[in-house]
Amino acid sequence: MLKLTDLKIAVDESIGSTLLLVDVTPRYEYRENVRTDKIAGYGYTIVTPEKSFEKLTVKIDGKKLLEPPDEGYEQVWFDNLELYIYWARGQYSIGARATGIHPVLDTTLE
Prior knowledge:
Elements: H1 11-15, E1 19-31, E2 34-48, E3 54-61, E4 74-79, E5 82-88, E6 91-97, E7 100-103
Parallel strand pairs: 3-6
Antiparallel strand pairs: 1-2, 1-4, 2-3, 4-7, 5-6
């Protein structure tokens, strides 16, 4: 039987194509439901202008790939961005993961 958590969510239709990075935080490894000091990856918090500036944190395993913006935001794009549904604290939530993150380079010429 197909479960809700098996669904694949269309990313652009769900969060839009403009993604603004506002923060980067470490994600720690857990053993037996206890947080360790080992960093497993990073969470890249973005806001989505096309969806009323809702926030979403995209998890990427491994080393830190981008620093948080000094102030404001930085437009980014992700490699293999995937949205998924999970159950936590008695309700469904939406999570996001990717394999890479890159700044959108301003290619306008003056």
